[in-house]
Amino acid sequence: MAATIDGHVAHPTQAWEFGSKEDRRRMDVLREWADCLIVSRKTLEHDNMDLRVRTKPHSKRHPQPVIVMQSLRALKNDLRIYKHATTGGELWISIASSAPELVTLAPALPTNWQVHTFTNVREIVQALAERGYRKILLEGGPTLNGLFFTENLVDEFHLTLLPLLWGGTTHDRAVITAMPLPLTRFTLRRAEKRGNELFMRYVRKPTSAA
Ligand SMILES: NC(=O)c1ccc[n+]([C@@H]2O[C@H](COP(=O)([O-])OP(=O)(O)OC[C@H]3O[C@@H](n4cnc5c(N)ncnc54)[C@H](OP(=O)(O)O)[C@@H]3O)[C@@H](O)[C@H]2O)c1
């Protein structure tokens, strides 16, 4: 996640494109490491990201894209991901309904995309692990992050501090949950200044509940 110095992680009107070339390069290093890249439908539609390793579009090493959604509204049909027809991916919908009926919700998706259903995000992680996808990169947004934190599924947190602020009254933050979580502690493993940005890697300390 990237945050402004006044704590914003979401802009009230604009897509989130505030990171530098260096921030995108570091995100790509994580994407190259990852087996899977999880992102919410809302963030994908809002920011219309390319879900591949963007600096190496011709590489064979792209993470499996995993889109998580809740409502039964169909995905927007003008997303960048549709242009990468050779890249398969997965759509996970949080209802207990049969997958074949739901395929019609995403008619524009390339045929090599799979549709699954779930009731708890833990099931997504388990299903991915069973298929050998164990290095999972979660790119948000904050509400989806909250679902994974609530289930103790996050080991590390990568934070970029951006030299920006815009104040306002919005209450966005990197992790949003309906109820406060038990206090979660981290070890700061790395903090690097590059240009005007600060890049930090936090590793979660074990808790008795983990
Ligand atoms: N600064 C950063 O690094 C960064 C990174 C990512 C995103 N963002 C920003 O974050 C903003 C969006 O954040 P957000 O917190 O409003 O939304 P979000 O976390 O991106 O989206 C919430 C998503 O989770 C789904 N969802 C909600 N409750 C669920 C549940 N109980 N089970 C399953 N799925 C559930 C929703 O599905 P439906 O869509 O079907 O309702 C929705 O797509 C955007 O402005 C984006 O630019 C910033």
Task: Note the main attributes of this structure.
210 residues; alpha/beta; five-stranded parallel beta sheet; four-stranded mixed beta sheet; 20% helix; globular; binds NADP nicotinamide-adenine-dinucleotide phosphate
Mind explaining what this structure looks like?
With 210 residues, the protein is of the alpha/beta class. The chain has helices at 21-33, 41-47, 99-102, 121-130, 142-150; strands at residues 2-4, 36-40, 64-69, 89-93, 113-117, 136-138, 156-162, 186-194, 197-204. The strands form 2 sheets. A 5-stranded parallel sheet has the order 5-4-3-2-6. The radius of gyration is 17 Å and the shape is globular. Residues 1-2, 9-10, 16, 40-43, 46-47, 68-71, 94, 139-144, 147, 176 line the site of NADP nicotinamide-adenine-dinucleotide phosphate.
